[in-house]
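Input/output pair, single chain:
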Amino acid sequence: MNHNDSERIASFLDKNGFLETNKDNADLIIVNACAVKKTAVDKIHGQIRNIYKKRQPTTILTGCVLDKERKSMENIFDYILDKKDLSQWPIPIKKAANYFDIPPKRKNSSAYITIMTGCNNFCSYCAVPYTKGRENSRNWQDIIKETEDAVKKGYKDIWLLGQNVNSYKGGISFAELLNKVNNISGDFWIRFTSSHPKDFSMDVIEQMARCEKVTEYFNLPIQSGDNHILQKMNRPYTVEQYKDIINCVRKKIPEVVISTDIIVGFPGEKEKNFRNTVKLFNEVNFEMAYISCYSPRPGTASYKMKDDISQKEKKRRAKILTEIMKEKTLIKNKQLKGKTVDVIVLGKNKNYLYGKTRGYKSVVFSGKDNLIGNFVKVKINKVSPWGLKAEKI
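Output:
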């Protein structure tokens, strides 16, 4: 979502006569922040200080900024501004615009389409409701128009984005939106993130199975495999309910690749609670997991809880889950060896092109630069837990 926000900001500045350059030559530097993790906030401090050592450009901080952290940021940045008020920023502006009416200046091979912003869930560890506000859904016709424009420009990897796409209310349900995007003419794939187990519906599962452009990749954050910790996190579902959703998805879409998000070391997470998360990992067989060590965020409910798990112990727990996932994913990836699969080519790294399968598996192979942004067929000839090596057919 930060990529998409940055693309709109860049587009708006282009239209107002600004020229893009690197940070060493810039008169104006804009940092689009994410306050979800403390490490991201720490990185901002370090980057700006390094810039100021060389020169003194005008600086703007936007994006997710917590009130408590805003104080320290005010001493570093010239302005802290809301991206939604872009047309009122104190910089030379010729053309005003509503934020979502600004066409993104896309720099990736994927087209990120924000369908909603904000969140109403108030998970006890999460800063999003305090930085992005309450849920606000875009009108579905605007989403269709932006997607159609992206497809006409050749984008084939379409991402529908929201803090909780299941609660989308832009005139139709999220399931209906998936169907309408799927019916847009063109050769492209559809992915979406993020989902919340509390309101994930059978309608969405049905559309995932029915819509041929919706890929067989599904991210459903659980955050903990222990019901007591889920309750403390203000995640209103149980592990049993979560597993029921996964079973339904796998029944309807047998080839689906499932990923999740996990926080280890949440306040009060005893060894027995963590072992329930280990048990869940062994039962569900996630092929990807975004594992985070808990960090307290100012203003959230958990900030008042004692952060009683050491950083060393958090890292130990994260490593245990990573090793389980590594083992499970390697088994699944070995089943792909020798098979021919479709890949969307996303870019080049040194001598290799890289891309993703429909199941969001990472693939590298040799090929020409003009393949970037296109679909190709490749044959998998080498596998590892974290990726696949292939040759172009």
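The longest helix spans residues 311-334. The CA atoms of residues 10 and 130 lie 25 Å apart.
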